[in-house]
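tokens incoming
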């Protein structure tokens, strides 16, 4: 019987495209995990706009995480990824990012960009694990001494 919390234990999640009826659940995930959550219109646009895409991670029937991106031609930008605090460290973020990369590649995207605060070590580890590399920094982007790191893949 494995012990919960061991690093090599991974849960399996269903990942599927987000639909409008997921918006409340996505907002709930954001409110628990992000200091400046997106508003309803921004989240709805991820689902409605033809140049955007959003995926949700389900544990049973419950939305426990989501990821969203916009794309144009062969380039995309990840807008946000968030997992419910109690569900982190179990592979959900990885499953979401892997599925998003596959989704974007199927749409013809070859380069993916994102920005992340320089103290967000978990997110940086996640992006690095999937081949993202840092190419620039925006000093004080999020406020005094709060820098943005710019990552891209490949
Ligand atoms: C970033 C986030 C989405 C990761 O989700 P997650 O479900 O915990 O991700 P995973 O369990 O798949 O872990 C992915 C990698 O992150 C790293 N990681 C996970 N938990 C970590 C922790 N507690 N400390 C340091 N690194 C950690 C590991 O490298 C891990 O890969 P590995 O276990 O194969 O080595 C989640 O922490 C989150 O929602 N954070 C708040 C929102 C946020 O900051 N989003 C990013 C904005 S740019």
């Amino acid at each position: 019987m494995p012990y919960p919390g061991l690093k090599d234990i991974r849960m399996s999640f269903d990942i599927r495209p987000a639909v409008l009826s997921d918006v409340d659940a996505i907002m709930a995930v954001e409110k628990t995990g992000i200091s400046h959550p997106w508003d309803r219109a921004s989240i709805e646009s991820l689902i409605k706009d033809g140049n955007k895409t959003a995926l949700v991670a389900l544990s049973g029937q419950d939305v426990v995480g989501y990821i969203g991106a916009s794309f144009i031609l062969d380039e995309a930008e990840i807008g946000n990824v968030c997992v419910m605090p109690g569900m982190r460290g179990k592979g959900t973020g990885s499953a979401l990012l892997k599925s998003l990369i596959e989704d974007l590649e199927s749409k013809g995207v070859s380069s993916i960009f994102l920005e992340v605060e320089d103290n967000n070590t978990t997110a940086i580890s996640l992006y690095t694990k999937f081949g993202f590399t840092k190419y620039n920094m925006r000093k004080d982007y999020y406020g005094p001494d709060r820098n943005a790191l710019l990552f891209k893949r490949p």
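note: The longest strand covers residues 62-72.
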